[in-house]
Design brief:
Layout: H1 5-25, H2 27-34, H3 50-60, H4 66-84, E1 86-87, H5 98-104, E2 106-107, H6 109-122, E3 129-135, E4 138-147, E5 150-155, E6 159-163, H7 166-172, E7 180-184, E8 189-191
Parallel strand pairs: 1-2
Antiparallel strand pairs: 3-4, 3-7, 4-5, 5-6, 7-8
């Protein structure tokens, strides 16, 4: 028997509710298996993965030259993440890899920052890092890179700012001795505070 649109939407809603019930029932088990130490976060940055590579190639276009085109390409990558990936808060703490973020067009702010970092590295900038700032109960994710003697800070929802020094950038985002902050990319992890 074929369903009309209303019946199909009702079925999808009920199926999603069932999936949510299963996830919530096994939440503790899922979160235990998904728990990564912060030092393991670099393995989430995947510039060489299939969908990240394909997306970076689309952003580059035909005549891409890193020195001439990286800044504009980085803005396109930031726009891609901002406009094409919907923000979502999952009912469980679950790490989403960049290819999954692209495939499902969903991710939380950290997932989206990890995707942007992966894209910028694939666009040719190995200095790119995810920067996480935690103050009290608020966690904020950024991406930054060095290019042409400046430091560019990407806040996916707010845009891009340029700084002369890393200290100026950290001060701008409110990172100080009263914060917890760390940065990472596919090659490294560093506690800042």
């Amino acid at each position: 028997m074929e369903m009309d649109d209303n019946e199909e939407d009702d079925f999808k809603d009920r199926l999603n509710q069932l999936y949510l019930a299963v996830i919530l029932r096994y939440r503790d088990h899922i979160e235990e298996k998904e728990n990564l130490s912060v030092a393991e976060l670099p393995r989430l940055v995947t510039p060489e993965s299939q969908l990240v590579s394909r997306t970076a190639d689309e952003i580059k276009g035909e005549e891409y030259v890193y020195e001439a085109n990286f800044y504009e390409a980085s803005l396109k990558a930031q726009e891609f993440v901002r406009d094409k990936i919907d923000g979502v808060l999952l009912p469980v703490q679950f790490w989403i890899l960049p290819d999954e973020t692209i495939k499902f067009r969903l991710g939380d702010s950290i997932d989206n920052s990890i995707l942007l970092c992966s894209l910028l590295i694939k666009l040719g900038n190995p200095s790119t890092k995810v920067l996480i700032s935690i103050r009290e109960d608020t966690r904020k994710a950024y991406v930054y890179c060095e290019f042409n003697n400046s430091i560019y800070l990407f806040d996916i929802s707010e845009g891009v700012d340029a700084f002369q020094t890393k200290e100026d950038m950290l001060k701008h985002v409110g990172i100080d001795e009263n914060s917890t902050a760390y940065e990472f990319n596919d090659k490294m992890f560093l506690d800042i505070y």
